[in-house]
Design goal:
Blueprint: H1 18-48, H2 50-61, H3 65-93, H4 95-112, H5 119-133, H6 136-145, H7 150-181, H8 190-212, H9 226-240, H10 248-253, H11 255-284, H12 290-296, H13 299-318, H14 322-338, H15 346-367, H16 370-374, H17 379-409, H18 413-433, H19 436-447
Helix pairs in contact: 1-7, 1-8, 2-8, 2-11, 3-4, 3-5, 3-17, 4-5, 4-6, 4-8, 6-17, 7-8, 7-12, 7-13, 7-15, 9-19, 11-15, 11-17, 11-18, 13-15, 14-15, 14-18
């Protein structure tokens, strides 16, 4: 198996006309995105289905809010530990083998979670799920840089990340339907059936991956003609020379990497708090029906889906990244601060959460154009995974912190106040520590 190779490894050719280039990128998009979209839908559903299972499994396992927070966070302990090694290993084994392995193992881990019988068993199952999933997201982000230049990457990344919002829209109603109608199936409790039914599709898609991802980059793409490969190499080659270079040690010494990671940490803390605690918050306002909780929980993802592509398109058109991301973080921070004025009222609280969560979701595609533009050479695989891992720290700590706050105070409002402060810090740090000129090098190459 050859390692992943960007299109720049192919012999370049003279630039082609805009129409031919657009047709080439449409062909690549339709070849890659449907599979990646489906995989990330399952990835998101299998990661957050515990938030709905908790509504019923808590009494069966004797699971307190604090213990649930630990269980939700245990996933990210495994994820963080293995994310960078997985992304580096993908460079040696290729995307097909890596993504096939990840899908099969995370599906198996999800199904196995149905058999936990104590909080400690839940912690172990979630940790193993994190180990299984490690490397999928940063691997895909890296893989997309081999196929799409910076001026198209915002929209392409938004199409990929829309799958997460799509999953969020459907995970609640789907979980409710499974738990309401499949309780007792094969002798399983409703929450056990949820893990089994939602884990099996990932294993099936893992088998599909072996046939769908029949190459590890443009140079090995059997479905591209030699002329198309040369055209792609020529277009992508414009930005290769604009990137930074250096080894992994230089990467670890670069303070801006940690600032970028802080921005992602704030975004991830927002999306994970909503994903893992919104059903509990809705239930705490007196809504006891699982189906209605599921439908209400879709609202942030509906609005997020509408805003993600529009923001990414605006960012691509202007080739501006920092203010698009920071603006979203500040909107989210303001929304969560306003939640303090909505105590005890379901509709205003849900409205604030919806706007805040949608702003963070909209920021994600634009944010993930920043690391590839800033990194380059040997730094890209490790750098993208490191930034993703730094975000995983928020995902590791935020469920624990929110659970502890909920247990000690009885509500979640203080948690959202702290989240608002973190988002504001992330926005300001990104603007101050990452000058636009560092990203404009790659973008200016795309303009030529």
């Amino acid at each position: 198996m050859q390692p992943l190779a960007p299109a720049s490894a192919i012999s370049s050719a003279p630039p082609q006309d805009a129409g031919s280039l657009a047709a080439l990128y449409r062909k690549i998009t339709w070849r890659l995105l449907p599979f990646l979209f489906a995989a990330y839908v399952l990835n998101t559903i299998d990661r957050i289905n515990i938030s709905f299972a908790k509504l019923r499994m808590a009494s069966d396992l004797g699971l307190s809010d604090a213990a649930y927070g630990i269980g939700a966070a245990a996933f990210f302990a495994g994820y963080i530990l293995f994310e960078v090694p997985s992304n580096l290993y993908m460079q040696k084994t290729g995307a097909r083998r890596t993504i096939t392995r990840i899908l099969l193992l995370w599906g198996l881990a999800t199904v196995a979670t149905s058999q936990v019988n104590s909080p400690e068993a839940l912690y172990a199952a979630r940790f193993l799920l994190g180990v299984a999933e490690a490397g999928f997201f940063p691997g895909v982000i890296l893989y997309l840089t081999y196929w799409f230049p910076a001026q198209r990457r915002g929209r392409i990344t938004s199409l990929f990340l829309m799958s997460g919002a799509f999953a969020g829209m459907n995970s609640g109603p789907l979980a409710a339907a499974i738990m309401l109608h499949l309780g007792g199936w094969l002798g399983l409790r409703d929450w056990q059936a949820l893990f089994v039914v939602e884990g099996l599709p990932a294993m099936v898609l893992g088998l599909v991956a072996w046939h769908c991802l029949d190459d590890d980059g443009p140079a090995q793409a059997k479905w591209l003609t030699p002329a198309e490969k040369a055209m792609l190499a020529s277009d992508l080659g414009k930005e290769v020379h604009a990137r930074r270079h250096g080894g992994i040690l230089a990467l670890l010494k670069d303070p801006r990497i940690y600032v970028i990671g802080l921005a992602f940490l704030s975004i991830y803390a927002c999306t994970n708090t909503i994903a893992y605690w919104m059903p509990t918050l809705i239930q705490g306002f007196g809504e006891a029906h699982v189906a209605r909780i599921g439908w209400i929980s879709t609202l942030p993802y509906v609005l997020g889906l509408l805003t993600m592509y529009l923001l990414a398109r605006s960012s691509d058109r202007r080739l501006e990244r920092r203010w698009h991301v920071a603006g979203c973080l500040l909107v989210a921070a303001a929304s969560f601060l306003l939640m303090g004025l909505t105590r005890g009222e379901l509709a205003p609280a849900v409205a604030c959460m919806t706007v805040g969560a949608a702003a963070c979701l909209a920021a994600l595609p634009v944010f993930w154009t920043i690391p590839p533009a800033y990194l380059g050479g040997r730094q890209a695989p490790a750098g993208i995974a490191l930034i993703s891992s730094l975000g995983g720290v928020a995902a590791l700590l935020s469920p624990i912190a929110v659970g502890a706050i909920k247990t000690r105070t009885g509500d979640l409002y203080l948690a959202f106040d702290l989240l608002a402060a973190l988002l504001a810090v992330g926005a300001v740090a990104l603007l101050l520590a990452l000058p636009a000129r560092l990203l404009e090098r790659a973008d200016s190459a795309e303009r030529r």
